[in-house]
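Sequence in, structure out. Go.
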Amino acid sequence: MNSYKRSLYVSMTRIVANLLMLAAVFLAMYQAGHSPSSSLSTFCLWFFGITIPLWTGALFLTRHIARRFPAEQESLVELPGLGRRLVRWRVLNEAERMNLPVR
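Output:
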């Protein structure tokens, strides 16, 4: 169930971020239209002023979702010198542990 919630919430985060990005383009174009002499700098100021914090927030929210809803093979582990990290576990069968070819 965690994998489903995780993929749903991450997808919703990306969709909302992309819609806000589209709104940022229109807002930047609107603001640039008010000052024709410096329209390029006004557009860049508004566009990057909105999108950089937007995608930074989306990145941190995605990481928070991954920690909150780990997949079946993942868990939070305290690693020496690195702190709490999300790690993925894989169980090897006997042949893989001995480095023998599987037939």
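Check: The beta strands are 74-79, 83-88. Residues 2-34 form the longest helix (33 residues).
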